[in-house]
Amino acid sequence: MNRNLVRKLVPEKLRIRLIMLKMQLKSLAYTGDTFYCNCCRKTFSRFLPYGNIPRENACCPWCHSLERTRVLQAYLERETDLFRRERKVLHFAPEWIIRKRFRQSAGRRGYYSADINPALADHVADIMQIPFPDETFDYIICSHVLGHVPDEKKAVSEMYRVLKPGGEALVMTVIDPDNPETFENPELTTPEERFAAYGEQDLLRLHGRDFADRLAGENINVEVIDYRTKLPPSENRRMSTGNGNRELIFRCTKCRDQRTPERGN
Ligand SMILES: [Zn+2]
């Protein structure tokens, strides 16, 4: 059966489930104990290579978590109480395994996943026009989304709008450490041009070392967390947590008193 016919006949959610199932069967070929995925809690002889310039041991054969997914999962589990108590959490473009962890957790009733594709999340939402009232959420998780949205400023202001005072947005993106400033050129419109300029064909910009400044605002404190540095080297190796270009967590806290923003850290 040709691919287009399959697309027409099989709903996208079911197609995704079948792909996952196939992937999980294939993961049996990687039985072993050298690597550990803290997202699906399974061990393997190795992870799969991943990326346009393939990164070795990047992708979990069972759940397809990447280095950044495992760092985010470790941070959420160890540094927040989101899996242990009910908080209002909005998770954009959810990694399916983290979404699964939330849905199995004590915090599941406060958890909202959102994506523009209804097959990938519980709520259909455009991050540039978030369909929730002001000050709804305690936490927002937004990993590797802001490089892809046409109007990044609008997306950031929308996230802060729906965040409660005292709430936190945990943001991740690809960072080019060699570039002090984010590079974007709206004249690059083809996948080939974007791939050549940004390293991925669906990126609209490549963030530089100014990313924290782009997230900062009058009432927003931004702390850059390299959570890999909190983990012992053996755990970083076993979980394959990357080189820090994709795994930094930008923790953006909305000040409680908006007239006297806190500074520091
Ligand atoms: Zn996994």
Outline the structure in words.
The chain is α/β, with parallel strands linked by helices and 265 residues long. The chain has a single domain (67-254), classed as 3-Layer(aba) Sandwich (Rossmann fold), CATH 3.40.50.150. It contains eight helices and eleven strands. It has helices spanning 3-9, 12-26, 67-79, 96-103, 152-162, 191-198, 211-215, 233-239; strands spanning 35-37, 42-44, 48-50, 55-59, 89-92, 111-115, 123-124, 137-143, 163-172, 220-225, 249-254. Strands 7-6-5-8-9-11-10 form a seven-stranded mixed β-sheet. The protein is globular, with a radius of gyration of 19 Å. The structure holds zinc ion. Zinc ion (ZN) is lined by residues 37, 39-40, 42, 60, 62-63, 65.
- Secondary-structure-based class equals alpha/beta
- Average pLDDT, rounded to a whole number, is 93
CATH architecture grouping = 3-Layer(aba) Sandwich
Taken in chain order, the helices and strands follow as HHEEEEHEHEEEHEHHEHE
CATH topology: Rossmann fold
What's the Cα radius of gyration? 19 Å
Gap between N and C termini: 57 Å
Number of helices: 8
CATH superfamily: Vaccinia Virus protein VP39
In total, the number of domains comes to 1
Please state how the strands of the largest beta sheet are arranged side by side: 7-6-5-8-9-11-10
